[in-house]
Amino acid sequence: MDLHLAGKSVIVMAASKGLGRATAELFAEEGAKVVITSRNVEELEKTTAEIKQKNVQAQIDYHVCDVTQVDDVKKVVAYTKEKHGSVDVLINNSGGPPAGGFDQFSDDDWQAAFELNLLSYVRAIREVIPHMREQGGGHILNFASSSIKQSLDNLLLSNTFRAGVVGLAKSLSQELAKDHILINTLGPGRIATDRLAQLDQKKAERLGQTFEDVQAGEQSAIPIGRYGEPEEFARQAVFLCSGANTYVTGQAFLVDGGLVKAL
């Protein structure tokens, strides 16, 4: 299948590692021109070099960006437009908020999670829409969590703001369809990333179990019987933002190995 991504201009937020990196790498393999972001310039340099080492034809560049800073977001979009002449795809991504329950979080914690996991998406979308309208269309994909279908224990902040991302995308899908801009949400289940390892470690400490026992228990609850790989998630992300997707918008999907039982 031709995904019609050769030469397309793609921004992948928070892409120095994990799901963002895997997605950026696959876009580059498909011939897209990719700009990745992170707060850490050293990590960006390392990731960019590693991707180019694996694929010498990869058209990948980076721009330092803290997604919670509105000026940083504006600069990334402006840089991409100037460098590549368009912004065809936006991948909204951000790190997860702290784990914990209601009594553990202050107003500052709530505000920080809002800015990281919801407002950052709003700001990035606001910046790319004029360019996508001007060029006659585009794709926006918001990375979220399996909590968009079924809440996760001890992840109150994530449960709250990831749901907001779904509401945002559903509403915008109605507004942007006339402009040929498709917007969807993609939630990972238990994908083998540094973030997942951190959550498993915290759970092990909370329950007084070993890290290995926690991982074994978590994997046993997944019908496929293992954690997913970032590349498996990335394949779904790239398809949804490709020329092969011309009719799917306003939808929320999971890549979870069958873990979530909600309809």
TrEMBL record:
Q: Which domain of life is it from?
A: Bacteria
Q: Does the keyword Oxidoreductase apply?
A: yes
EC class name: oxidoreductase
State the EC number(s).
Answer: 1.1.1.100
- Keyword field: Oxidoreductase
Which Pfam families has this protein been placed in?
A: adh_short_C2
Question: GO MF annotations for this entry?
Answer: 3-oxoacyl-[acyl-carrier-protein] reductase (NADPH) activity
Q: What InterPro entries does the annotation carry?
A: NAD(P)-bd_dom_sf, SDR, SDR_fam
Family membership? Belongs to the short-chain dehydrogenases/reductases (SDR) family.
Q: What is the official name of this protein in its record?
A: 3-oxoacyl-[acyl-carrier protein] reductase
Naturally occurring in which organism (per UniProt): Shouchella xiaoxiensis
